[in-house]
Amino acid sequence: MTRRALIAGNWKMNMLRAEGEALAAALASGLKPGMAADLLVCPPATLLAPVSAVLAGSAVALGAQDCHMRDSGAHTGDIAAVMLKDLGAAYVIVGHSERRADHGEDDATVKAKAGAALAAGLTPIICVGETEAQRDSGEAEKIVGGQILGSVPDGASQSGIVIAYEPVWAIGTGRTPTVDDIAAMHAHMRHVAGRMLDGAGALRLLYGGSVKPGNAAEILALEDVDGALVGGASLKAEDFLAIAAAVA
Ligand code: 13P
Question: What is the mean pLDDT of the segment spanning 140-150?
């Protein structure tokens, strides 16, 4: 089963309009034909419309960083998945550890958001990952497996979702697990997800947490790693394109 790699940039709460438009334009023009990876950018909600306009006609896909679990209603400040779809988004990140921590999102919330994304015709990128204390106590696989079981919506298909493994302690720290640890976790994730999805040969599993041009090749070469979810290094076109070019 060949899975096409996905290199996704999570801009988090960064970029004003001019910078975001310039970054999107640089990615659209820097994308080489025949590249082995799909490219995706997930700007903050304020930039979805202008970045969507810049990316129109390019092969760079657009995604959001979060969505609400309902389609409409009295939810001040929230954004529905159908609204993201309406702006040209194809993907939405759900359950990022920063949302789990900052907004108290649990697996049930993440599952409902992922379900709303699917219903709206978006591909949810469902994030999972252990804390440092959980890894140190030998619980990493149990935690991540439990998050997958709790966060993947009923009725999801292997090719309709993406799951991203982002160890909390590796995000923005410059630290990463060893390649052996990433390989073992991704194999475990494919096994767990495969029980829910009736196989997982077509499921894309991303690694995220301090992915840089310098470490991308060895991580992306791993059998069960089908791409990367990139934070800091996605804010520079040169670095993000270098990561994408590291896909063999
Ligand atoms: P960094 O690449 O900055 O470590 O962020 C990873 C991340 O959280 C992507 O969602």
Answer: 98
**Domain-by-domain residue ranges, the chain?**
5-245
211 lines ligand 1 (CB under 6 A): yes
Q: Which fold has domain 5-245?
A: TIM Barrel (3.20.20)
Q: Which of 21, 130, 166, 188 is catalytic?
A: 166
Phi, psi of 161 (to 5 degrees): -130, 165
- E strands, the chain, are 5-10, 37-42, 61-64, 91-94, 123-128, 162-165, 204-208, 227-230
Q: Using pLDDT thresholds of 50, 70 and 90, give the confidence band for residue 1.
A: low
41 lines ligand 1 (CB under 6 A): no
Q: pTM (2 decimals)?
A: 0.98
pLDDT at residue 248 in the model:
86
